């Protein structure tokens, strides 16, 4: 197991989760752990600074606006490949099966099992190899999340890129390249999976 990847994944899981008092208490720990590896802290610096410079209520309001009020930055990996289709239920079941197969009780905290912070924490603390396989399988989803964050100039962009950098292969240069990588986008009809259509990408102001 790569210690650097483990630290990167766990810090990313925490930074992409809804902020609470515990998260703010963990900021010095994240700084210290990431600081052990050259360059590892840089992608997290702006977000960690914001945790220390803003009160908790402001951080929570910002998180809700960025991640909960729409799907532009949806952190559920299968949304980007299966959208709101019937097949997504099977995909979510597959995530649960992976967690059960680890022989470790995974606390979903009421979230769907494909929630990116949960997958990252699973990889960091339970099974790095299997967790990385999930992340690689949903690499197009990671890249689309990243481009959505980048389009809105959000600091979490660099954190998601840091996760992508732990996986095999270079990141696609743009969303068109992700389309070629995946072949699919987030459809919204109730059955099947449509071919990837760039019009399905969340657009500015959506």
TrEMBL record:
Which PANTHER family does the record cross-reference, listed alphabetically? Answer: NITRATE REDUCTASE MOLYBDENUM COFACTOR ASSEMBLY CHAPERONE, NITRATE REDUCTASE MOLYBDENUM COFACTOR ASSEMBLY CHAPERONE NARJ
Q: What is this protein called?
A: Nitrate reductase molybdenum cofactor assembly chaperone
The biological processes this protein is annotated with in GO are:
chaperone-mediated protein complex assembly; nitrate assimilation
The Gene Ontology terms for molecular function here are:
metallochaperone activity; unfolded protein binding
The organism's taxonomic lineage, starting at the top: Bacteria, Bacillati, Actinomycetota, Actinomycetes, Micrococcales
- Annotated source species: Arthrobacter psychrochitiniphilus
Task: Could you list this entry's UniProt keywords, alphabetically sorted.
Answer: Nitrate assimilation
Keyword Cell division in the entry? The reply is: no
Q: Which Pfam families match?
A: Nitrate_red_del
């Amino acid at each position: 197991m790569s210690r650097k990847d483990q630290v990167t994944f766990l810090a990313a899981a925490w930074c992409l989760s809804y902020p609470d008092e515990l998260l703010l208490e963990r900021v010095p720990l994240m700084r210290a752990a990431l600081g052990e590896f050259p360059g590892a802290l840089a992608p997290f610096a702006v977000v960690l600074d914001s945790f220390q410079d803003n009160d908790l209520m402001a951080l929570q309001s910002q998180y809700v606006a960025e991640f909960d009020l729409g799907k532009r930055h949806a952190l559920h990996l299968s949304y980007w490949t299966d959208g709101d289709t019937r097949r997504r239920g099977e995909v979510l079941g597959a995530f649960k099966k992976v967690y059960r197969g680890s022989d470790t009780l995974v606390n979903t905290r009421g979230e769907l099992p494909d929630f990116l912070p949960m997958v990252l924490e699973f990889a960091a603390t339970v099974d790095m190899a299997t967790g990385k396989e999930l992340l690689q399988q949903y690499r197009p989803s990671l890249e689309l999340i990243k481009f959505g964050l980048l389009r809105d100039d959000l600091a979490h962009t660099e954190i998601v890129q840091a996760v992508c950098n732990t996986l095999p292969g270079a990141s696609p240069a743009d969303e068109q390249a992700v389309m070629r990588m995946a072949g699919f986008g987030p459809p919204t009809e109730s059955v099947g999976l449509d071919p990837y259509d760039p019009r399905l990408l969340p657009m500015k102001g959506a």
